[in-house]
Amino acid sequence: RKPVCLRSGKLTMMGSTTPNDTAAFTWTRQQAIETAQSQSGASNCGATALLNVLAALKEPMPSIREAEHAVHTNSRRYGVSVSEYLAARSIAGCTGENIVAGCATVAGGNVTSRFFA
Questions:
Q1: What is the pLDDT of residue 92?
Q2: What backbone torsions phi and psi does residue 116 show, to the nearest 5 degrees?
Q3: Distances (CA, A) of 36 to 3, 50, 54, 80, 81
């Protein structure tokens, strides 16, 4: 298994040592241009984060649709009253636990994931 830690928007391979937390990067600029996945829609940052972690770990990647299905996401609502839109928008997106559960769904036992606040 490849343990990984997501903290403050940074990917850190567990067991790696870096003298400065801000110096830990997942990819070089060129690798990011070639490898990083972009969001395919509003509020699906969790599925995108999962795909990028799997790519960084060189694990088999599901399709964006499979990742979106695996990571529970509260979607924004359009074409509704302002109050309904704001209520939905206030909970749009996903939690760390949603991404961890999605990772277990698509990666099985190959990747162990945890979020730290």
A1: 86
A2: -120, 135
A3: 20, 11, 10, 33, 36
